[in-house]
Every structure is written in C-alpha cells, then in structure tokens.
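Recap from last week: sequence in, structure out.
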Amino acid sequence: MTATLSLGHALNSGLRRAMEHDPKVVLMGEDIGKLGGVFRVTEGLQRDFGDRRVIDTPLAESGVIGTAVGLALRGYRPVCEIQFDGFIYPAFDQIVSQVAKMRYRNEGRVGVPLTIRVPFGGGVGAVEHHSESPEAYFAHTAGLRVVTPSNAADGYRMIQQAIASDDPVVFFEPKRRYWEKGEVDDEGALSEVPLERATILREGSDVTIAAYGPMVATALHAARIAEEEGTSIEVVDLRSLSPVDFDTIEVSVRKTGRLVVAHEASVFCGLGAEVAARISERCFFHLEAPVRRVGGFATPYPASRAEHHFLPDADRILHEVDRCLQP
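Predicted structure tokens:
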C-alpha cells in the first residue's frame, strides 16, 4: 500500500516493521522510549513493544554503543540512537576501535549487526553540537557502512536494510528533512534498490550534481531553477557514503561531461573530495570542465542566526554549475 509520509514517520514505520519481523531487534537511546526521541522518530514504539525492546538509556553515548556491541555479538540486532550529531564523539572510540574492527578481528566468524542512527546536519536553528556533519570521519573508517536517506521512501526502506545487514551501519538522518513528505510503498521489496546503490532522481544532459542527505532537496531545487534558464541538470543521490557507488556517478558524468558535488560539511577533506578525485580518474577523457565542489565553510558550525549563510543553497550550487559551463 502506498501512503504519504514524512521522513520521520517513514523511519518510524520502518523501525516498527523491522521489530515486527525480528524479535532480536532492540532499540536503545536517550529519551527514545516514553518521549519517542527528540524528533519523535521512535514515538509509540515503547508502548507497543515494551521497555525491554525500546530502552531508555543513561546520557552516556559510549556506554550505549559498548552495550550494543555486546548485544550484537550475542545475536541481537541493536539500533542505537545518538540524539544529536555532535553527541557522537564520546562514542567515537567505541565505534572506531571496536564496532568497525570486530568482524575483521575475528576473521568474519562473528558479525556486528549494529545500526547507529544519527540525526545530522543543520537548518533547525539549534545551538552548537546540534548541527554537525561528521560523516567523513566514519566513511574514512574501514569496517563501517555509512548511509543516509534523503526522502521518505528511502528512509523507510534503508533503515530496514541497515538493520538486516550483518555489518555495522552508521545511519545518518538529515534532521531538517524530517518533516518533508513523500510517497512510501510499504509492500515493495527491500532488495529492489541495494543499500549501497546510488540513484538518479532527475535526468539531465548538461551537468551532473551528486549530493546526499539534506542537500539532495537543495540540488533538485537548483535543477528546477536551471531548467528555467535552459540548463539540463542530472541529480544523483549518493545514498551510501561508504561504500560509494562510483559506477552510477561515472555513467552520469560520461553523459553530461561535468560534475558538481554538494554537501553541508566543510569542503576541505569532505566526501566531495573523494568523489571528485575518483571521477577525475575514471572520467578524465570525458570531462569538459574540472569537478566542482560545494559545501560548508572550514569553521565550526555558526550560531543559528548565521546558519543560512553557512549552509549551501541553490545559488551556491548554480554558481558552480555556471563555472562548469564556462567555455
């Protein structure tokens, strides 16, 4: 059945379906039970599944992840919520030193089917430590899958795929898109689009824009503006940040000859740098212009009154599109 859901509601529905399907799925996090989470993504789940499967934890991210590792090793499929992106750093040691390496350490005999949900990015007028974009830290860490949905349909499907994975998954949720609605088919096969596959959301012929998470909607907005000016833009939603589906990007760039990569995180050492380098290598003789990058500035995230200047918008994307199209 197809329904119109917000991204937040779609994630809730995906979590519910995963819990119904597998009694070993347990949710853990700060205020996720009675409150339903700061963004209400887990609302109603403790009421329906009980407080032994939807667990309100102490305010101790390292403890949450450490406990989840033990559960995963004993055959459970824990789903941990980090309340805000900037709160993940106390758990960084557990994620990098234990979660990412455990399966490699035991030569694949024991998996760590752990999903770590992280609301990330800006645009909600929050104070510091509540609007970070830390995805590159984790994409750089071997042993982790890192993914991010940009819309409700992907949110519903990808959270279930992440939970079903025998690898640990860091699942970044674009918090400023939680309330945006889209069509969700709850009867579609989860294997229809693999978790690691990028998708082309809009076809075009002049320039490719590759984006992920919160920036996908911005890229689509830029493409609509460009169309009115006679420029055809193709928009690729990366979805997976580790591994990256370079094949899909390459096919698009071989067609358009130009690429702009957009993300909220700082341009310096961001995911866009890796995409730019790989596509420059793989499409060197097809590129009509250097790969351009759009991102945040190399500063700590600003106060909420200045975040509209920090966050890349359609104008900044189109500026780089214009640079690509210059003769």
